[in-house]
Amino acid sequence: MSVWHITGGRRLSGTVEVQGAKNAVLPIMAASVLTPGVTRLENVPELSDVDITMRILRGLGCAVEREGDAVTIDSRELSRSEIPHELMRELRSSVVFLGALLARCGHARLSMPGGCELGPRPIDLHLMALRALGAEIDERAGELICSTPGGLHGAAIALPLASVGATENAMLCACLAEGETLIMNAAREPEIGELEGFLKKLGAEVSGAGSATVRVRGGALAGGFAGHRIMPDRIVSATYLAACAAAGGDIELRGAQPRHFSTVLRSLSECGCDIIAGDTSVRLVSDGNLRAPRPVITGPYPGFPTDAQPLLLAACLKAKGTSVFVENVFQNRFRFTEELQRLGARIHTEGRVAVVTGVDALHGAPAVATDLRGGAALVIAALSAEGETEILDSGHIRRGYARLDEVLRALGADAAYTEAKGA
Ligand code: UD1
Fold it and tell me: Which of 151, 285, 318, 382 yields a CA-CA distance of 20 to 30 A from 141?
């Protein structure tokens, strides 16, 4: 078990270079197997989710190297289309390999990713989209055995929910399907646009990302070399800003894209923070005395991101008044609030709604990171609490944050992180 020790009460000040986006790099790494070629990705964050994806790629027969923030993937010798259960279990989003492997190999075998700490996360929409493209998928004893006996063909796919992962899976598979594919009610998250940009570099004809309809004209892809720099992480950006809002201070994020998290900036501004947003930077000034924002209602992009909900909620624990959070994307995303209550927070949850009554002070306490963003929420709360908080973390936070402790210390926080051996 890894452990955080955070003594709150220090203002944060300084600048942060925002890391590359986890949710952009993972599908792009999966996309790299579409063609027999070499991909060089830059600005790849050092995250355990990225490490696992590298292991998946090696297991498929790719040569994968990391040098600093660059990762090179050589998929010319890809020889397998199976992902072992232990890797699938560790990384739910590895299901996005399904579309890429089916397209490249004509078959794929992987285990069902199952539920996770945010509640049940079905993959029915992924499977529906891939079946529409011609895949035969046998769901047997927790395994997905997939093939394309009649080849892949373009299709009109109407997603009942704008699922990010299903949109990505369909886009990857459609790149090598014969004819045109339309993905309707596609997710519009910025990471979909990033994936489209990468697929174009592979030679694919994809358009419409960022709108509700993504169009793919499938066909053979030549392979060769593709280079790509990963976009900044909007949720990590929101994390540092929420931490500064709660603890008080003055920080600037560099290499950020504020237009990708304008809903978060609006809420932080309603809380009383001063925000100066440029094209690729954003500065936040807070005296730590916040007021409750208007109700925060999560939804698919361009709505308020569900991944930023725990972060803003943590920033509002001492905000004057009552803050309301409505979670519309995941069923079970308030588990972390029980841990926040150990620090003295007053939170009442019922179903999809959490109501936070601002308290005058939080106090340090032992707590447990329940999931990635719930863990980050605890860190934010601890930074604004009096005394020391110890957070036990079985590796959740490292899934999404590169050197979070070092960055926080550079901003003036009293934060130490001891990683469990072998974690
Ligand atoms: C991605 C992000 C995750 C983020 C989420 C929503 C990655 C690696 N992860 O996850 O950080 O929180 O988008 O912005 O990019 N659903 C179904 N059936 C399906 C697929 C999804 O019912 O086949 C439901 C889910 O249970 C959930 C909702 O659709 O309630 C949205 O999920 P989805 O957009 O697919 O999220 P992910 O792609 O898993």
Answer: 151
Output the ligand 1 site: residues, CB below 6 A.
23, 26, 93, 121-126, 161, 163-166, 187, 306-307, 329-330
Mutate to test the pocket of ligand 1, among 47, 52, 96, 121 (most ligand atoms within 8 A of CB): 121
- Whole-angstrom distance, CA of residue 382 vs CA of residue 361: 11
Judged by DSSP in three states, 196 sits in helix
Q: What is the pLDDT of residues 253-311, one digit of tens each?
A: 999 999 999 999 999 999 999 999 999 999 999 999 999 999 999 999 999 999 999 99
Three-state DSSP at 262 gives helix
User: Are residues 6 and 366 in contact, defined by beta-carbon separation less than 8 angstroms?
Assistant: no
Q: Which two tokens stand for residue 131?
A: 């079946």
Q: Which helix or strand (DSSP H or E) is residue 181 part of? A: strand 179-184
Which residues carry out catalysis?
A: 116
pLDDT in tens, 347-397: 999 999 999 999 999 999 999 999 999 999 999 999 999 999 999 999 999
Between strands 143-147 and 156-158, the pairing is unpaired
Distances (CA, A) of 150 to 81, 116, 135, 136: 18, 34, 8, 9
Q: Return the SS3 of 156.
A: strand
